[in-house]
Amino acid sequence: MRAPKRTVQQSRLAYASDLTDYEWTQIEPWLSQAAGPGRKRTVNLREIMNAILYLNRTGCQWRMLPHDLPYWQHVSYYFYKWVADGTIERINDRLRLQIRTTLGRESQPSAAVIDSQSVKTTEEGEGHGYDAGKQVKGRKRHLLVDTLGLLIMVIVSSAALPDRDGAEELFNATDGSLPRLKRVWADQSYAGMLVEWVHACFTFVLDIVRRPQQQRGFHVLPKRWIVERTLGWLNRYRRLSKDYERRMTSSEGMVYLASTRRMLRWLDHHHKPA
Fold this sequence. Notes:
Layout: H1 21-31, H2 45-58, H3 72-84, H4 87-102, E1 111-120, E2 129-131, E3 136-146, E4 151-158, H5 163-174, E5 183-186, H6 193-201, E6 205-208, H7 224-234, H8 248-270
Parallel strand pairs: 1-5, 5-6
Antiparallel strand pairs: 1-3, 2-3, 3-4
Helix pairs in contact: 1-4, 2-3, 3-8, 4-8
């Protein structure tokens, strides 16, 4: 479908989700076109990213993007392209390492926390299922975060997939990318054979944080609150309130994008102007 012609708008009022100049400098090298032969880009990549971030934060449809942003066809093309080639995930990883070193920590974490979140989906798309425990029909997000609550990895599956099986997929996907990892905390849904499997296959241990038997009502449990806080941060991005994506890889991309947006804001707030 060809986009209709229109005049190029030279300036516009900023949206709250727009990148600042500093934020753009942090991710521009990952998005810029490689030198060499080929057709040169004719779109403004900063505006493309602004449009993707607007959609992620507001939860609108691709076709409902404001007219002062690039054509939705261009925006969706770059989003799916950056998801497919791993660009969005690599940006998330790079920003997480930058924040950790800024705070005086090792770039790679030695401890992490895992949890899952079941969300409803639309009637279209792949990977539907029913989570009997949460009574949710849709998909499940399996998240691994460091002790700062920064996203390390996310895998989206059918909501019917048990947490233990999702954790196996998640741990296998790390594929040696976390050499310093020694301990991962999890809730009681991950107890059982998974603990022994992790002990046999990996160099880290899976530590189950159990709720005291006498506990009544809500109480903050050690370490588990870290990933719960991360889920709370992600809930501010309305595109994640329900899974609207056709493909599960696109769903993962939206989670990485929300994580990236939050880390960019943190870096912009804490950086010291030259």
